[in-house]
Amino acid sequence: MRPWYNRLPQTAIEAAMPVRKPNFSPPFNVVRASHVELAVRDLGRSRAFYVDCLGYMISAEEPGALYLRAVEERNHHSIVLREAKAATAVTLGFKVASEDDLDRAADWFARKNLPTAFPKVPHQGRTLRTADINGMPLEFYFTMDQSARMLQRYATHQGARIQRIDHINCFTPDVQASYDFYNEMGFRLTEYTETDEPNGKLWAVWMHRKGNVHDIAFTNGRGPRLHHIGVWTAGPLDILHICDVMATSGYLPNMERGPDRHGISNAFFLYIRDPDGHRIELFTSDYLTVDPDLEPLRWSLTDPQRQTLWGHPAPKSWFEEGSEFISVPVRDPVLAAQPVVAR
Ligand SMILES: [Fe+2]
After folding, report:
1. What confidence tens digit (pLDDT) does each residue in 255-266 have?
2. How far is the CA of 193 from the centre of ligand 1 (A)?
3. Overall pTM surpassing 0.90 (yes/no)
């Protein structure tokens, strides 16, 4: 049995299908999604939410900035909150496998006429700042300051006992273009949503480097915008517990969707909004995707079990609201199709 991507001549696949052959020899080696930087309007209010409620640990508190990490993380930060006048997404961070990979990445982005710079970034080694084809700000680095190992200091774990960052999900105005770009970078497709017409169009894609369902996902919509960051909990009970905590500590309006189980990815989840509206997904229990011949799962845009296995449609806000990136123009999507929404 040949792998799924070799069952038809590659040229026929390229011509007839939106799904590409995975790139097993990428131009540089991305290890995983690593961190995000968010601009927030009131650091004290954000600290109360991320630290006191969700249980994030503070790695550094500096004038105008808060560096946070979750209990499993040895890296200095997976969320950087920076105080600003407007709430925006600032940058999306990825770890690469070596210093050489940073130089290969810089060459690759430069060949595509995309901006490249190596600014000094606190708590990180050499860091490449660039942008994808839609202008979404990206940064790549190899080394970051390391922090104390807290995983087995259970008595200190608070809130949702968040273990680590898992993924980044973005709105894109052109899912096919984003998919093609990240596929070339070596991100591999695990699941996708397609419209039902004879030549179906990609509506959303989930792509990974680290070996579970995704490091990055793209959803059709006004973009580029950050839809959410997904953070991993040890189990569904941590998510149920934070529901009780939020519902009784003034954060009930911040609970947007769930708890529930996704059809796509099989993950148990809860979507919440921080005090500035940035969306966080508490996420656990997806599956292993390291096999090179793992065939991506196709979902129909009209299948209600795609959004949630138990059939509940997502609210309208979930499909429409997201965090814009500073000074990055947002465009309407090329695809008009919309899924079923709850309200
Ligand atoms: Fe997610």
Report:
1. 999 999 999 999
2. 14
3. yes
